[in-house]
Amino acid sequence: MNIKKDWGELRFATATLDGKCVKPVFDNITGSGHPTFHPNGKFLITDTYTHQSLSYGDGTIPLRLIYLETGEEITLVRINTLTPYQQEDLALRVDPHPA
After folding, report:
1. What is the rounded distance in angstroms from the CA atom of residue 79 to the CA atom of residue 72?
2. Counting C-beta atoms within 10 Å of the first and last residue's C-beta, which end of the chain has fewer, N or C?
3. Residue 91, SS3 per DSSP
4. What are 63-98's pLDDT values in tens digits?
5. Beta bridge partners of 58
6. What is the dihedral of CA 85, 76, 23, 34, to 10 degrees?
7. Number of domains composing the chain
8. Is 86 left (phi over 0), alpha (psi -120 to 50) or beta?
9. Residue 99 counted as domain residue
């Protein structure tokens, strides 16, 4: 999941089932979008929001693959998420949800 908590910016985080113990996955990598941890525990994949600094500013966003052990990040694909209608109705946006 992503959470801001008291870390200053959005971070990828894990939590216990009761939500009492929330910990950041990385101290130095900004969280974004809709993260999913791979079942093998080696990496996560996530999109980003078009308004976030991680987007490219032209309506395209990265799908990010992040290795949990090293923090290495790879952009898998750059996706155009702008639609001609989202200014009128935000529900008519493209939201990649890579999981």
Report:
1. 20
2. C
3. helix
4. 999 999 999 999 999 999 988 888 888 788 888 888
5. none
6. 20
7. 1
8. alpha
9. no
Kindly state the tokens that stand for 78: 């750059």
Q: Cα–Cα distance between 56 and 95 in angstroms, integer?
A: 15
Q: Tokens for 65?
A: 């693959």
- Residue at 64: amino acid letter: R
- Radius of gyration of the CA atoms of the chain, in A: 14
Note whether 85 and 94 are within 8 A (CB): no
Distance CA 89, CA 99 (A): 25
pTM of the model: 0.85
Q: Which residues contact 22 (CB under 8 A, 6 or more apart)?
A: 3, 5, 13, 14, 15
Asked if residue 18 belongs to a domain, the reply is yes
Q: How many residues does the chain have?
A: 99
Please check whether residue 46 lies inside any domain of the structure.
yes
Q: 97: which DSSP letter? A: -
